[in-house]
Design a protein that fits this description.
Elements (H helix, E strand, L loop, with lengths): L9 H5 L11 H9 L18 H7 L3 E3 L5 E2 L10 H7 L1 E3 H8 L11 H6 L2 E5 L3 H11 L2 H4 L6 H8 L5 E5 L11 H8 L4 E3 L15 H16 L3 H4 L3 E6 L2 E8 L5 E11 L8 E11 L2 E4 L3 E2 L13 E2 L4 E2 L12 E3 L2 H4 L5 H21 L10 H4 L5 H18 L9 H10 L2
Parallel strand pairs: 1-15, 3-11, 4-5, 4-11, 5-7, 6-7
Antiparallel strand pairs: 2-12, 8-9, 9-10, 13-14
C-alpha cells in the first residue's frame, strides 16, 4: 500500500468528523489486514514523486487505485477559496477546514484561528453532510470536542471562536436537501444552540407524496418544536437552513475581508417534488464574516495514468472503468470515490470495493508471476513502514490518554518523522 501521508487510513483519519468516532471503527478491520505477512505499507510515498505508476503496474501483478478525491468542486465565481488567501478574505473551502480540524498536515497553515476569534456570523454554501459537519464543529461547545481526536491546535482556536450564528444555504429546497436525516437530527439536538425557522419557511407546510420527503419535513418540524423551549431560546448560538439561493457575488469590505454574499433567488421549475430549480431576477444579500464552500469533493488524475491507457473524465472527475479495470488490457483497477465520484457513506464505498475486489481476485487467479520488487531502495528509505505507524499510533494514544483525549495527533509530517528517528 502506497500512501502520500506518513499515516494510513485516509478519509477516516482526515475526513470523518472527530465527534463521530464510531465511523472510524473500520480502521480496526484495516489493521487486521495489515497483520498479514503479505502486506507492506509505504507511507510518505507519493505517486509521481517517489514512485511512478507505470513502474508499479510493471512490477506488480495488479494495482488498485483507491485514492479518493483530493480536491473540491468550484463555484466559478470571480473568487474561489484558496489556502493562500483564505485568512485575509475569510473564504474557506470546507475540505480545507475539515482537514485543518482533523490535523491533516497540509492544512495546518490554514490559520483560521484569528478569523474565528473575530467572526460573529458564518455562511456554509451547500447542505450535504460535510456542510453539517462544518456547522456542528463551529457550533459545538469545545469542551465536548476535547475528548475526541480533533487537532489540539484547532481545538485551541475553536475555544477562542466568537461565531454565534451559522447559515447553511442551498440552491434547492428542503425536499431535495443533500444532508441525511440522521445528521440533521444530530445538529437539531446540539446542546446550547437554537435552530431558527428555515428561510423560506413555506416548505414546512408541504404534503409531498414520497415517504423520504415527508420524513424530511417531519424531522425539521419536530426539531423546530424541540428547540422552542426556553433553554434553547436562550442558547448562545443559532443556526438556520436557507433554501433556493445560489451565490452570485462575494462582497468584500475595505480591507479585503468578506462582508457578505449576494444570492440569486431560485424557484422550482415545476412542482416542489420535481428536483430542478431555475434562477429568478430576485437577489438577496446575506451578511457574513466567514464563508465555507461545501459543494462536494473532486478527484484528480494521477501522473502516469495516460501511459496505462486509463481515461479520466475531467468533467465528472472520475476514472472510467469496466469490471473494475481502468483499461481492459491493463492490470490496474480502481475503487471508491476515484471511480464512483465523491458520493455515499463508507458503507456504499465498501460495497463498490467488494465488487472490485472480486474482479481483482478473479484476475489474479490467472495472472500472478510478478515479484512486487517495487521501487528503488534509496527512495524507500524515507518511507514509513507499518511498524513505524504502529509506533506513531502508540505515541498518539499514550499522549491522548495523558490529556483525557482519545488521541493526540501528530500535526506535521516533520514531527512524525522526527519522532520515528529519535525513537529508533
Ligand atoms: P454532497 O452530499 O454531494 O452535497 C453537496 C452540496 O453542494 C449539495 O447541497 C449540492 O446541491 C451543493 N452544490 C453542488 N454544486 C453546487 C453549485 N454549483 N452551487 C451551489 N450548490 C452546489 O457532498 P458532501 O457534503 O461533500 O458529501 C460527500 C459525501 O460524503 C456524501 O455522500 C455525504 O453523505 C458523505 N458524508 C457523510 C457523512 C456522514 O455520514 N456523517 C459526513 C460527511 C460526508 P444540490 O443538491 O442542489 O446539487
Amino acid at each position: 500500500m502506497f500512501e502520500r501521508h506518513c499515516v494510513p487510513f485516509g478519509l477516516t483519519r482526515f475526513g470523518v468528523a472527530p465527534d463521530h468516532p464510531e465511523v472510524k471503527n473500520c480502521q480496526e478491520r484495516f489493521a487486521d489486514v495489515a497483520r498479514s505477512p503479505h502486506f507492506r505499507f509505504f507511507g510518505n510515498c507519493e505517486i509521481g514523486r517517489d514512485v511512478e505508476l507505470p513502474q508499479l503496474a510493471a512490477r506488480y501483478d495488479a494495482v488498485l487505485l483507491a485514492y479518493g478525491a483530493q480536491s473540491e468542486r468550484r463555484l466559478s465565481l470571480p473568487c474561489e477559496p484558496e489556502l493562500a488567501t483564505a485568512r485575509t478574505q475569510g473564504l474557506y473551502s470546507a475540505r480545507h477546514f475539515v482537514g485543518w480540524y482533523n490535523g491533516e498536515p497540509e492544512f495546518r497553515r490554514l490559520l483560521i484561528g484569528e478569523q474565528l476569534a473575530r467572526a460573529r456570523r458564518a455562511v456554509i454554501i451547500g447542505n450535504g453532510n460535510v456542510a453539517l459537519d462544518v456547522a456542528r464543529i463551529l457550533l459545538r461547545n469545545p469542551d465536548a470536542l476535547h475528548p475526541t481526536d480533533i487537532s489540539s491546535e484547532a481545538l485551541a482556536s475553536l475555544r477562542q471562536s466568537k461565531v454565534a450564528h451559522v447559515d447553511i444555504v442551498a440552491r434547492r429546497g428542503l425536499l431535495h436537501a443533500a444532508f441525511t436525516n440522521k445528521e440533521l437530527r444530530e445538529l437539531g439536538r446540539e446542546p446550547d444552540t437554537h435552530m431558527l425557522p428555515p428561510d423560506p419557511p413555506t416548505e414546512l407546510e408541504l404534503r409531498p407524496s414520497t415517504r423520504a420527503m415527508k420524513r424530511k419535513i417531519d424531522l425539521l418540524n419536530s426539531a423546530l418544536s424541540e428547540t422552542s423551549s426556553e433553554t434553547k431560546k436562550n442558547a448562545a448560538k443559532t443556526w438556520k437552513l436557507s433554501f433556493f439561493k445560489s451565490p452570485r457575488k462575494y462582497i468584500f469590505g475595505n480591507e479585503g475581508a468578506i462582508k457578505g454574499i449576494e444570492w440569486t433567488i431560485n424557484k422550482y421549475t415545476e412542482s416542489p417534488e420535481s428536483s430542478s430549480v431555475a434562477p429568478t431576477n430576485e437577489t438577496v444579500f446575506l451578511p457574513t464574516d466567514l464563508v465555507f464552500t461545501s459543494i462536494g469533493y473532486r478527484s484528480l488524475p494521477l501522473p502516469g495514468l495516460d501511459e496505462l491507457g486509463a481515461k479520466f473524465d475531467a468533467q465528472r472527475g472520475v476514472l472510467l472503468r469496466s469490471r473494475g479495470r481502468v483499461n481492459p488490457k491493463s492490470n490496474v483497477f480502481a475503487a471508491g470515490w476515484i471511480a464512483t465520484g465523491p458520493v455515499g457513506v463508507i458503507a456504499s464505498t465498501m460495497m463498490d470495493s467488494f465488487a472490485v475486489g472480486d474482479e481483482l481476485a478473479k484476475f489474479l487467479e490467472g495472472n500472478s508471476s510478478n515479484t512486487g520488487e517495487t521501487v528503488d531502495a534509496e527512495k524507500m528509505d524515507r518511507a514509513v513502514s507499518w511498524s513505524d505507524w504502529q509506533r506513531l499510533n502508540e505515541e498518539e494514544l499514550r499522549l491522548g490518554k495523558l490529556l483525557g483525549r482519545s488521541r493526540e495527533k501528530f500535526l506535521s509530517s516533520a514531527d512524525m518523522l522526527g519522532f520515528l528517528n529519535e525513537s529508533r
